[in-house]
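Hi all, long-time lurker, first post. I run a small reading group and we've been trying to get comfortable going from sequence to structure in the token notation. Rather than ask abstract questions, I figured I'd post a concrete chain and ask someone more experienced to write out its structure so we can walk through it together at our next meeting. Sequence below, copied exactly:
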Amino acid sequence: MNVVEWPGEEPKTAKLNVSDKILKEVLAGGNRVSLAEQSQTTLKQMAGLPWCSRVELRSDITIAIISGPAKLASQWYMPVIGPKYSDETDTVKTLKNAADRLRKTCKYEPLSSN
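-- Answer (accepted) --
Happy to help. Here is the structure in token form:
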């Protein structure tokens, strides 16, 4: 039997158009990406995003983050679980190893029992 933390698929890569303000907040150390301006279709996609997926945030510049499923507080948002400090040089490709390490250390990989 396999037990997997929801959503338990393999991490994905996704692209998300965001405002300059949101991108600047992430670059300043913000740990959330507001989804308030996103469509219902995008919200559904982000709500099912597997843990440790890499998401390309696009505005005037493009950076990547490591995230998981969207959450609802006062509004919908995506958590930024890596890198600890985002940089304009972060890309989906450069964050692959960090995302793989996070997936293991946070125990989001499937667990098997006999």
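A couple of things your group might point at:
Residues 7-99 form one domain.
The first strand starts at residue 2 and ends at 3.
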